[in-house]
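Following up on my earlier thread - several people asked me to post the actual chain instead of describing it. Fair enough. Here it is, all 384 residues.
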Amino acid sequence: MYTLLIAIIYLAFISLGLPDSLLGAGWAGMHVEMDVSVSSMGIISMIISGGTIVSSLLSVRLTRRFGTRIVTVASVFLTAAALLGFGFSTRFWQIALFAVPYGLGAGAVDAALNNYIALHYSSRHMSWLHCFWGVGAIISPLVMGFALRNYSWHGGYFIVGGIQLVLGLFLLATLPVWKINPEKGTADGKGGGIFSALKIRGVPFMLVGFFAYCSAEAAAMHWSSTYLVEVRGLSAERAASFASLIYIGITVGRFLCGFISDRLKDRKMIVLGTAVLFCGLALIALPVKSPAPALAGLAVTGFGCAPIYPSIIHSAPENFGEENSGAVIGIQMASAYVGSTFMPPLYGLLGGIFGFWLYPYFAMAFFALMIVMTELAFRKAPKK
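Reply from S.P.:
Thanks for posting it. Predicted structure:
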């Protein structure tokens, strides 16, 4: 039963990653058909992010009332319905409408599942589960590419929505398996809410640190292709291909980190990852004509990013108490979505004014803020 449950949760993490890269992969065809500008994708992204922020903040209440398993199943079905709704849409306002349940479903399941893993499983499983999120995020563009070659972008959403629906049905059928792990600090009614969590020593520092990390990670992902074109002189086609190096670095890095994370523990994994990613950013910033160091730097930066997100999440119960981890992780997820939503556009604005050479230095500034804030959080946390 234990093995079956962990396999179920791994599938759930794949379902988390499936929708995340689908919009960007299909938007080139979507905006033409709906007769809207390319930049209109920002409106959809903002609506989705708004939904994820709201549902992340509400996740602790939902989990305490219904339990992680119900929240997970309901969220997967909600996301599946939204993806199928995207597939049926022919107007921009319809896409915007379905973006609401899309975001609400993603945020709730993200916070609930991460808290469940942090409470019940070791750091290695947290790392490997987030690796499987990367698998889902890699699959979606491949599905959309297949759909665009053979059908249309509608087909891409139908396929991924169908996969999500099948996963939801499987999760529904296996609900009894979740009973092998009793709910801690959630359905048992223990712990305070969001405002109580904010008063715990170290929590505000961790929130700022997580915000800074997700800001830098999102900016690095979104703007790597533009940096390679504008600064390193690559063609748009080559740059688009090489931009995947950072995703590959994160996915491979999380798989490998799973073998050492239990031994080193969360705090050391964060420090180690930060040291590696700064080496990657230094390679990107090297003032040389050849693009090779920058390309290697993208992969190294992704590899360094790999342990940080899972380790910050996994450390919440130990730092702030099992009874508070649901609320803390919910706020962390909300802060993550705020950073990943608003900071990449800020870099785009600064890059347009001063030049896109700022790319590695912008990321360095936020990663430096992250390591300072997380270290302060670890030192001040009450360590339950």
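The chain has a mean pLDDT of 87. That should answer part of your original question.
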